[in-house]
Amino acid sequence: MAEIAHGSGNQAEELKYLNTYLHLKDSLDNIRDQEKFQKVSWQWEAEKYQQNLENAELKRKQINQTYFYVVVFFVLLFVIILLLVNRSKNKYSLKIQNLKRNSCNCLMRSNWWIKS
Question: What tens digit of pLDDT does each residue of 96-115 get?
Answer without folding.
Answer: 888 777 777 665 665 555 55
